[in-house]
Amino acid sequence: MQPIERRKLVSRHNPVLSQPEIMAPLSVGNGEMAYTVDITGMQSYPDAYVFPLGTQSHWGWHSTGGRNVHTLEQLRLEPFDTQGRDVGYPTNANGQEEAFHWLRQNPHRVQLGVFGLDLRTQDGEHIELNELQDIEQTLDLWRGVITSRFRAGGEIVHVVTACHPDTDQIGIRIESPLIAKGRLSIVVRFPAPHPQARGWGSSIGLNWEDSNLHGSICRSATRRGAQIERMMDEDTYHVRMAWTEGELLQEGPHTFRVMPNSSLDRFEFAVSLSPQEPQACEEFEATIEASSRHWEGFWQRGGALELADSRDPRAVELERRVVLSQFLTALHSAGSLPPQETGLMYNSWFGKFHLEMHWWHAAHFAQWGRVDLLRKSMDWYNRILPKARALAASQGYQGARWPKMVGPEGDQSPSNVGALLIWQQPHPIDLAELCYQAEPTQGTLERYRDVVMESARFMASYAVWEQESSRYVLGPPVIPAQENHRGDGTMNPTFELEYWFHGLGIALEWRRRLGLPPERQWEQVRAQLSRPNAIHGVYEAHELITDTFEKANIDHPSMLGACGILPGKLVDRETMLRTLYRVRDDWKWETSWGWDFPMAAMAAARLDEPGLAVDMLLMDQVKNSYLINGHNYQRDNLLCYLPGNGGLLSAAALMAAGWIGGPDSHAPGFPGDGTWNVRYEGLLRRI
Questions:
Q1: N or C: which end of the chain has fewer CB within 10 A?
Q2: What's the rounded Cα separation, in Å, for the pair 627 and 650?
Q3: pTM to 2 decimal places
């Protein structure tokens, strides 16, 4: 078989815009920071876009009023009866609202600055977005470069935008007769951090009010650059700018203008952001060359999937989603921290990340032959391991309990739901195993040894022996992945049982690989763990419910994950197949989320229903739509959703390359009737 022409495959899906896409702007970035632009290639019209035009990083965080205004130790915990003993959880704000909500919202990620063009008519009037003409904007995926062309006030403007792959720097080149005519300048604006508010949606946009909440001090300025220090309570960062030649003017407490020298028709502008004073900015050409080398190397290594010669008309769209999702997850989900659900675009849930979503963001990197990108965020678990151990011990458990909604320091956030979730617990074990599959070395085992062992130690400790039924049970209290169940009324959720069995099995295998003796308690828990509950021939969400498909058929159909994400060792195959059909027919899919569709597709593939796998993966639902920029839209205040993109890549890899212990046939997750022509390279088979 001829190798896939990767540049051709990638480039045919370059997003090309001929008008402002106010809900689907384009971005450049490097995994640690991202810069989202409007149709001008900069952030010139932030107030005209529904989608926030943001500049975010993994280091840019702020705590309102200071870093320790409130602490978790202050909260009164709500006691839950846990098989005969009380365990406290931060689930109730009654009487402690200020501390409860402050801890949920802090630290929060900040928008680091807005860097845009100011375009003027001959009469000096500001040119509005709807007055731009002859628009053409292209994201060159192969090079990671955005090229924007448009006409403003009768003159052509050409802008090239790139992000340096190794430093948090944006490089921009502008060519236009407007420069020499004094009708083009760059405006730099710094938004305020968001004041304390109850709903996470209140922190989505850019806060141009509250100028007293932050400071912007120009520390130095020359004809070729400037340095600005930003201050917010105890938090600071630095902005260094460099340009061809011009003058910096301060027009307000947080607004600066760069006026290019009027002798120029080409103007280069760079901005470097850092928590410490950044080094000098790279030249524009160096940034472009570095970006091109980086992204070409990204596309040439690892996996590729080509579907273009398929007869199924949906193949072109699936291939587009796969290509764009690789770019977006490398940009937003491949950094030193697990990403927030909206990546580095704008804040969701205050910019914090959700560890139960980490698998969806990052597992695919290993499946697509880019395990180095997974390792970046995996190392964070080692850094916060002491806090995870302390959390487990505070609840009377052994090992390390991973929190749900967290910031960079690993402190859990109070929540009436998140504090009772457990399905994030086996994630580091499964992700570590994916790393080992990709690189089966002693170094991999040692790198994640403590994370795997301590995760499993908690899991074995969390399961409770139920004497009357001679088995281990999970919960109550527990809230399953399908979050619309009460914590004190849930026991033995289907997916979590399978994941406990799966995770403990991997941990025991790691002990064997490391030459350690087996842990008898882990073996006993695994052997005598409760089995998923089936009623009327299908699996329910958990053991204490009998009407999942009549009254609780909303949110995530997480029971499918037991034989989709996971290999389904505890479930009966025929029962799970009936469950899949029931979910297909009776689930309220409009209430589901972006990763539910690939989860269902993986279940269908493993259950030898490839036609249904494709149908599930491409189901026509609002929350399974992918915008022109490749982002998975969910709703008007959740305009992008990276777990959907990551889940799509995991499902596509499983459907194409198959799974360990699965059929030997080519592309077993796609129909074999000739309607799909599946070519792939470099994909890792999952367990």
A1: N
A2: 19
A3: 0.97
